[in-house]
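Long-time lurker. I teach an intro course on protein structure, and each term I like to show students one example going from raw sequence to a predicted 3D structure in token notation. This year I'd like something fresh instead of my usual example. Would anyone be willing to generate the tokens for the chain below so I can use it in lecture? Attribution to the forum is fine with me.
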Amino acid sequence: MAGIYLHIPFCKQACIYCDFHFSTSLKNKEQLLDSMIVELGDRKSSFDDEIVNTIYLGGGTPSILDVSEINKLIDFIYLNYKVSPNAEISLEANPDDLTEEKIKQLSQTKINRLSIGIQSFFDSDLEYMKRAHNAKEAIESIKKAKKYGFDNISIDLIYGVPSSSNKQWEENLDLFFSLGIPHLSCYALTVEDKTELSFLINKGKQKPVSEEVSKMQFDILIAKINDNGFEQYEISNFAKNKCYSRHNTSYWKGDKYIGIGPSAHSYDGKTRSWNINNNSVYIKKINKGETVATQEVLSKDDVFNEYIMTGLRTIWGVSLIKIEDEFEAKYTEHINKTMQKYLKNNTLVLEGNILKTTDKGKFLCDGIASDLFIV
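-- Reply from a regular --
Happy to contribute to a lecture. Here you go:
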């Protein structure tokens, strides 16, 4: 099975923490969407033998598009690719875009999963993060989505925000559970280079983000998740009744996918490519029939390291049998040696032949994985 990711690089305004590729100007929107259609046509030959199991509209803010524009992209895929009858088709959306009329229109499309960027149910946090919506809109967007038949809903929440206390974070989670949503993605606020948050902290205009607070709030998250019957199937993702994100799960399991649009990434197991992250240049190159992607052929070390990173982040872990079967002996020798100290300090555990991160090790997962890399 394979996936298609569509990067919609437009937002109403810039969030303080965001380092994704986007533009707050919509002047090239029509030309860019037409260019994405052209790229979808050009990439078709690489997917001739693939069944498309997931389609994901991300960004940016895909919900900024008109429903007719969303349908144009999805309909083109259905006409030109082999799409599974039960494909998961996800749309990332911001609450301020999800008016009653917009959700009603979306309910009549092929979209069957909404990922809503709530981030917090408190206005103080939303103002700090410079989100375009308020707390009331956040709650109402979920209620309206459910009213119009969207049962497969995920929301994003951010912890470690300096404007939020531990008590407020608990209240955020309690409100989430009360809304009966089957999926949650939670991320620690991080300070990325070249973001407004980084600039403000460096100038002393905002308090630094505290790793200690993030760790405390992560622990609160895990306790609440367990108490409410959710499964942590990936470090930052939680589901009830196995309502996993099929699209993201395919990434973590190493399935093939193509990314369409500026800055989108693609992967086929042997190579990785990424599109240019400039809207105007992307449009010009597509119109001239020029490539918009830079490609990297993955070494065996790259494939091994990526498997370690993604595997340790998920409930499926890292299979030592898979490493033995698909890699040379030196890789088995390496993992058997380097994992020992983490087994001893109880941050990793072996369940049969599967290496997994323990509860103690989850917050440290990325650092543990990097120590297990072959470099």
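Some talking points for your students: The chain has a mean pLDDT of 96. The longest helix spans residues 211-227.
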